[in-house]
Amino acid sequence: MLEVLSFEFIQNAITAGVLVSIASGIIGSLIVVNRMVFLAGGIAHTSYGGIGLAVYFGFPVFLGASVFAVGAAVLMAVATLNQRDKIDTFVGLIWAVGMAVGIVFVDMTPGYNVDLMSYLFGSILAVSYTDISYMSALLAVIVLLVVVFYRQILAVSYDSEYAKLRGIDVRSFYILILVMSALTVVIAIKIVGLILVIALLTIPVYIAEKLSSSLSVMMAVSGVLSALFTFLGLWLSYSYDITSGASIILVSAFSLLLFVLVRKLNSLKNSKLYTPLKD
Fold it and tell me: Which CATH superfamily does the domain covering 2-272 fall into?
């Protein structure tokens, strides 16, 4: 199996997996803590509109998806910040329109681009050096923003009212978190596809949340778990010739199930050990 590592496409896949895992660990934690999973899902599907526009006009797909996803994130943030009761309506509308725009422009594109399927279900084995460069740049932006504004993001994520009292612009950081989510979704699309991206952003985080005592630790642990799941999924994908995105998510889901079962068994075991004796 080690000789496989000599192939350039495998090296690119591993590099991309590490980059996306770091981003997923950081932003996935923020998404879960801020209860933005549905919003992130809406952004992921809306970004297909950018993919369709990029294919039609002939510019880089990642660029089109990024611009479209960031625009959708800002629009969702502005529309839902003060009207949380209507969040489902706004997200559903933007989600549907974004997908529709992408489908229309793909239909209008002369010929058929078979590579489009990789953006729906992921294709980590097809990652190019250009893709890695783009992922690296977006990850650098995400890490820089989180490091610089960590305290403000932490305050907004756990207690927005306290953050307001401390003079923090909650609205701006709410938008910033969604924009970073959009950028993370874009770089994760190539790995697991826009249909499965939310699972990559939430499953490792759920496990990490149970093992962590702080947001920063949660980010680190979920990043490591995400990388582990990605590598195992990549190995299964290569070994059995199955779709990489699906194999990564199935590995993640199986790991989550195993984690929950182990915790449940330990809980039952501990409860029996500490059961008070009856008179």
Answer: ABC transporter involved in vitamin B12 uptake, BtuC (1.10.3470.10)
